[in-house]
Structures are given as C-alpha cells and as structure tokens.
C-alpha cells in the first residue's frame, strides 16, 4: 500500500471570518487549511505546527500583520516560511513596505480566486525547490566533512603508523624477553613484562578507537564536555606530527573546570584542522602554537595563534571558502577552514581571523556553555 502523499499546509490569518471562508474554499482542494483570527493566535500556531505558507492580513486588532511577520523573521526555526500579505490597502508604499519586511508577495482585496491560487501555487513550488536544494546542500556538506576527516587521516598516515609501531615494538620486545625469563624461572620479571604487554596493547587499542571515532560518519550529538578533553584528543591525533615538525603547543586557561556544550568529535576536528593548518607553515623547528581559552556569562572563547609568517593579505578574504589552499595539490584538500567554519556554524557560532601579520596568525571562536 503506497503512503498517502503529503499535502502542504496553508495558514490563513485574518480577523474577518468571511475572508477566511473565501480563501479556504479557494485553496482547500489543493492544500490543508488552518486559520487564526488574530496575530497572537497565529504566532502560537506557527510555534506548534510550522505551516508551509502563510496568508497574512495586515490590519488586525492587537498584533498587526507587520509585527507578526517581524517576529516570524526573527525566529531561526520559522524565518524560512513564505508569507503573503493580504490587504485592502492597495497603495504602492504599503506593498513596498510589506515586501521590504520579508513578505514574498502581496495580494489585495477583494480576492480574485484564480490570482490567489496562482500566487500560492507559485510560492509553494518555490518553497519545495528551496527545501530540496537546502537538503542537497546539507547532505553534500556532511559528505565534505567526512571527506575532510578521511583526508586528514591520510595526511597523518605516517604519524598513525608511528603511533602503532612504538607500542607494538614494546609488546613484541616484552614478549620475547618473557621467553628468556621463563627459561630462567624469573617469575617477578615475567609478571612485570606481562603488565608491560597489556599497557602496550591498551595503547594500540586506544589509538584504533580514536581513529574509528574520528573517521566515523555521525550526526550532531551535543553533550557537556571539558574543553581540555577535546583539545587533548586533537593533540593526541597530531602528537607525532607536532614532534616531527618541532612545533611546541602551549595552553592558557584550558582547565578541567571549563566545560562546553557541543559535539566533542566535531569540535575536536575543529582543533585538528586549525593546528594542522598552522603546522603546514611552521617548518623550521621553532614553531609555537598557543591555545588560550576562557569564558563569559554566555560562552567559552578560544584563540589559537601561531608564530608563522601570517596569511598573505590578498588571501585573507577567501580563506574560509571551499578548496582554498596554499599547499601543493597533493598536500591538502583546501576544505579544512571551510569545514571548521561550517561545524561552528552548526553550533550557532562563528570563527574569525583576528590577526595575521609577520608575527603569525590568530583565529578566535566561541562555544556554547549550555
């Protein structure tokens, strides 16, 4: 049995029952109809069940149509709803004012059913196309985020091999020495080497869990997490790379008491991308990256600065665009800063380049506390 096709919903807002009846009879064959006879009731209904389109009268007692539209446009959850003003006012100034507030169209009374149908159908079709486009952009951006994670892992492949190799040698070395201890009957040494083997295996296991967590596709999942833990996770991913490049990490204000409300895996990716970006230009063994953090009443703030050569002036305006890179073709995707900005945007936050000169660059962003 095929599912019932979705019928789009039109909310009619007018204090005159006659107008509601005319518009309802005009549209109900094609759409589900709901109605409100006041601006305050309309706002309640929009909160309870988001309509696909609103036909909104301007002149109403209490909250008028202009104010209803202002409040809808201020809401991130409802600003996308197309609103068509319906009014007896046919002055060009009124129509212009309504469109400037954010209405998508303006229909004058008395209503002409054919015009009402055509206008509503046009804006419903535009809404469907816009929703499909937004969905496509969302899906593609999620794919880019995942691609960026995998590209970062590819860039860090030498470091990953090194991280596994060291504890593996530790495990193998202790296992070989246990064989000698067994022949010599040295039980104390055998016990200690067994403990060492377990530690080495746990180190490898922790690394593989971290890599799986970093590369896994996942939805947004915000929890309260110490910022210190997020930064430590990113630094652990980059530990060998930082050693190889001779880059020193310094922190200030990053303590266990500072917790943030975020997706820790995604914010860890933000730190990996920013630190990775800095290490690309810190190649002389004297590089320093400083991570500072603190909080206000509403947010935690983070700055990440380096002592590199800075970003060229002519590139500053484009650094957050996709595929921006100063690296060779095989050295990066050019998605790091773009993905970083997108992740923070999904958390309702922004990132800014707050300094870039001969003494280095500095990025600043905030994170929610709750």
From TrEMBL:
Catalytic function, reaction form: ATP + protein L-histidine = ADP + protein N-phospho-L-histidine
Positions bearing 4-aspartylphosphate: 57
Listed EC numbers: 2.7.13.3
Keyword vocabulary terms for this entry: Kinase, Phosphoprotein, Transferase
GO molecular function: phosphorelay sensor kinase activity
Name of protein: histidine kinase
Keyword DNA repair in record: no
């Amino acid at each position: 049995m095929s599912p019932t096709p979705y019928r789009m919903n039109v909310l009619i807002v007018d204090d005159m029952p006659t107008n509601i009846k005319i518009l309802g009879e005009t549209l109900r064959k094609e759409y589900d109809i709901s109605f409100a006879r006041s601006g305050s009731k309309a706002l309640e209904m929009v909160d309870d069940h988001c309509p696909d389109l609103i036909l909104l009268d301007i002149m109403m007692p209490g909250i008028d149509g202009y104010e209803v539209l202002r409040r809808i446009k201020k809401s991130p959850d409802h600003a996308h709803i197309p609103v068509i003003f319906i009014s007896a006012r046919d002055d060009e100034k009124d129509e212009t004012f309504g469109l400037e507030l954010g209405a998508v169209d303006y229909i004058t009374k008395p209503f002409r059913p054919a015009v009402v149908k055509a206008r509503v159908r046009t804006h419903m079709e535009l809404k469907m196309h816009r929703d499909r486009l937004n969905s496509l952009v969302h899906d593609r951006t999620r794919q880019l985020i995942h691609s960026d994670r995998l590209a970062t892992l590819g860039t860090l492949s030498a470091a990953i091999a090194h991280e596994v190799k060291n504890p593996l040698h530790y495990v193998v070395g202790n296992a070989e020495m246990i064989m000698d201890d067994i022949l010599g009957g040295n039980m104390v040494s055998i016990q200690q080497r067994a403990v060492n083997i377990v530690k080495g295996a746990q180190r490898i296991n922790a690394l593989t869990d971290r890599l799986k967590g970093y590369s896994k596709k996942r939805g947004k999942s915000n929890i309260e997490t110490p910022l210190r833990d997020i930064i430590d996770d990113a630094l652990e991913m980059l530990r060998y790379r930082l050693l190889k490049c001779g880059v020193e990490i310094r922190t200030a204000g990053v303590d266990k008491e500072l917790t943030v409300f975020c997706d820790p895996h995604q914010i860890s990716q933000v730190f990996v991308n920013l630190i990775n970006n800095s290490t690309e230009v810190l190649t002389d063994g004297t590089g320093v990256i400083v991570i500072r953090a603190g909080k206000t009443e509403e947010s935690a703030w983070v700055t990440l600065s380096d002592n590199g050569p800075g970003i060229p002036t002519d590139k500053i305006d484009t650094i957050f665009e996709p595929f921006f890179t100063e690296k060779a073709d095989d050295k990066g995707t050019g998605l790091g800063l773009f993905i970083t900005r997108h992740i923070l945007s999904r958390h309702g936050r922004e990132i800014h380049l707050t300094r870039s000169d001969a003494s280095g660059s500095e990025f600043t962003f905030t994170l929610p506390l709750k």
